[in-house]
TrEMBL record:
Residues 48-452 form the Glycosyl hydrolase family 13 catalytic domain. SMART domains: Aamy. The gene is aglA-2. Keywords: Glycoprotein, Signal. Residues 1-28 form the signal peptide. It comes from the Bacteria. Belongs to the glycosyl hydrolase 13 family. GO terms for molecular function: alpha-amylase activity. PANTHER family: ALPHA-AMYLASE FAMILY MEMBER, NEUTRAL AND BASIC AMINO ACID TRANSPORT PROTEIN RBAT. GO terms for biological process: oligosaccharide catabolic process. It comes from Azotobacter chroococcum NCIMB 8003. This is Alpha-glucosidase. SUPFAM superfamilies: (Trans)glycosidases.
């Protein structure tokens, strides 16, 4: 995944390669417009639940399964098609659960396997699919395999499940190569008292597995089956571009490895060998009834390579992170929409649209900044010592963005709290921060805690109703009272009610299955038709003219002047 100088340049090149001229201006989401269960993932709205921050049933300050179950009616009413749950497996939580100690056990902190099964059953009963997170690149250092590896000698089968190497230098006192960890510092830790080191592309507590070892492959196929047998509808695959490392583990061609920590290319990323793994997983998934899906979290360059992950015999979707990184400019959005659809069309896969997740600055805060700068990139949170966003502007833009994004053909992700217009906690003090990225860089990188703050459900309750008591694992800013679900329920113009209406109309007008046809509009305005709707978003500050006789179905803000679309506002019109 992630970040920085290298990423910024490769993205610029990729965007410059916009394929729109090659493919013209109208794209079908899918040759098949008939919606069947087989095709559910081609147009679905998938809601990301970050379990530790969604809802806390037992009052220990950390969200859990019972919290999620209690809020299923809320999600149902919101109108989403599917849920994606970030990891809830047994874990010491060194990276908020992306460090798994047992892939088959629900961490007691979150509940039990029985509770998960209840959640699944109740979500299914409400017509919502459920996908779970799979973390195959690394385990926790507390996983039984890694513990066995530490107790076994170099060269043993136990060590062969991970990537152990002798250190350099006379006594092995230097790391085997210069690879940096994505989270800061070296990607290697030394086994105490030995010459050997182990590789961890992320935290020291996340040793990388050796995917050249058939035992690792066999084990993960069993893990897939374990959750498929329980009825999950698929998997979000963490660090899908990282499993295979180039043979030889050569040094990066740079002195300062850290600079390259988030690069998309290099001997550790996007090696062709990963695809054999996903093809074998596809075969496993296809042995189960109904359509079980995989979605790739893959940061690759050039971005055409993303299509390799979504070929018909591999995964079903890949997150479109470049959409999330787009600056607030009509031309930039038009380019990314065109190039995204053109790219996925080359392999017949649906396009995905993502504006926030648990690794990135929440959209209302991102678009409330004067300069997006590096904050467009994951991990680059906003902290008390960095420029603060304009909250009102950011919210206004995020509401308009929701109306753009959810009008596009394809599948869309909503990150919990997005439907509330929830901002980042941008002033959280360092003493509360828990992200390994913040800790390993000694606060030099703000990290991701700001977008992971527990949700506000009730404005006047302790912990804003996150749990029964006042505990929350990260502090909530006072402003969250304004965003609480109960405050928004009754307010006709609230962001929550806007999202509900968007999702209802999207469904009724089959926008996810539709076709996009651009319509000429002014410099700052994007306009397109999808089915019987015309969508306009004004990303500038000056009001723009609406087509004559417009019949407005929905607008992201009140329209004070007849026939005008104010700046930072979107509308859906009924086509006549
Ligand atoms: C990507 C996940 O989204 C992120 O939260 C995690 O820290 C890394 N992968 C490592 O698993």
């Amino acid at each position: 995944m992630f970040r920085r100088k290298f990423l910024a340049t490769t993205l610029a090149t990729a965007v410059a390669l916009s394929l729109s001229s090659l493919y013209g201006s109208a794209y079908a989401a899918d040759a098949t417009t008939v919606q069947s269960d087989e095709n559910w993932a081609r147009n679905s709205v998938i809601y990301q639940i970050y379990p530790r921050s969604f809802a806390d049933g037992d009052g220990n300050g950390i969200g859990d399964m019972s919290g999620v179950i209690s809020r299923l009616p809320y999600l149902d009413k919101l109108g989403v098609d599917a849920l994606w749950l970030s990891p809830f497996y047994k874990s010491p939580q060194a990276d908020a659960g992306y460090d798994v100690a047992d892939y088959r056990v629900v961490d007691p902190m979150f509940g039990s396997t029985e509770e998960f099964e209840r959640l699944l059953k109740e979500a299914h009963a409400r017509g919502m699919k459920v996908i779970v997170d799979l973390v195959p690149n690394h385990t926790s250092d507390e996983h039984a395999w890694f513990q066995a590896a530490l107790k076994s000698p170099p060269g043993s089968p136990e060590r062969a499940r991970y990537i152990f190497r002798d250190g350099r230098g006379e006594n092995g006192e230097l790391p085997p190569n210069n690879w940096p960890s994505v989270f800061g510092k070296a990607a290697w830790d030394r086994v105490p008292g030995e010459k050997q080191w182990y590789l961890h592309l992320f935290d020291s507590k996340q040793p990388d597995l050796n995917w050249d070892n058939p035992e690792v492959r066999a084990e993960f196929e069993k893990v897939l089956r374990f959750w498929l047998d329980r009825g999950v509808d698929g998997f979000r695959v963490d660090v899908a571009h990282g499993l295979i490392k180039e043979k030889g583990l050569a040094d990066l061609p740079i002195e300062e490895g850290r600079e390259n920590a988030g690069a998309l290319v290099g001997p550790m990323w996007d090696q062709d060998g990963v695809h054999e793994i996903y093809r074998s997983w596809r075969k496993v998934l296809d042995q189960y009834p109904g359509k079980r899906i995989m979605v790739a979290e893959a940061w690759v360059s050039p971005r055409e390579r993303l299509t390799h992950y979504i070929r018909s015999d591999e995964m079903d979707q890949a997150f479109n992170f470049e959409y999330l990184m787009t600056k607030w400019e009509a031309g930039a959005f038009k380019d990314i929409i065109n190039s995204s659809m053109a790219l996925t069309a080359t392999v017949g896969a649906p396009t995905t649209w993502v504006t926030s997740n648990h690794d990135t600055v929440r959209a209302p805060s991102r678009y409330g900044l004067k300069e997006l700068g590096a904050h467009a990139l994951p991990g680059n949170g906003i902290g008390p010592n960095t420029p603060q966003p304009d909250e009102a502007l950011g919210l206004r833009r995020a509401r308009a963005l929701a109306m753009l994004t959810l009008a596009l053909p394809g599948s869309t992700y909503i990150y919990q709290g997005e439907e509330l217009g929830l901002p980042e906690h941008t002033t959280m003090e360092g003493k509360y921060r828990q992200d390994p990225m913040f800790l390993r860089t000694k606060g030099e990188e703000v990290g991701r805690d700001g977008c992971r703050v527990p949700l506000p459900w009730k404005a006047d309750a302790p912990s804003f109703g996150f749990g029964p008591g006042d505990k929350t694992w990260l502090p909530q800013p006072a402003s969250y009272a304004r965003y609480a679900v109960d405050r928004q329920e009754g307010a006709a113009d609230s962001t929550l009610n806007l999202y509900r209406r968007i999702l209802e109309l999207r469904h009724d007008h089959k926008l996810g299955d539709g076709k996009l046809q651009w319509v000429d509009a002014g410099k700052d305005v994007l306009a397109f038709d999808n089915g019987d709707l015309r969508v306009l978003i004004n990303m500038g500050t000056q009001a723009a003219a609406l087509p004559e006789g417009s019949q407005v179905l929905l607008s992201s803000e009140a329209l004070p002047e007849a026939g005008k679309l104010p700046g930072n506002t979107a509308v859906w019109l009924k086509r006549t």
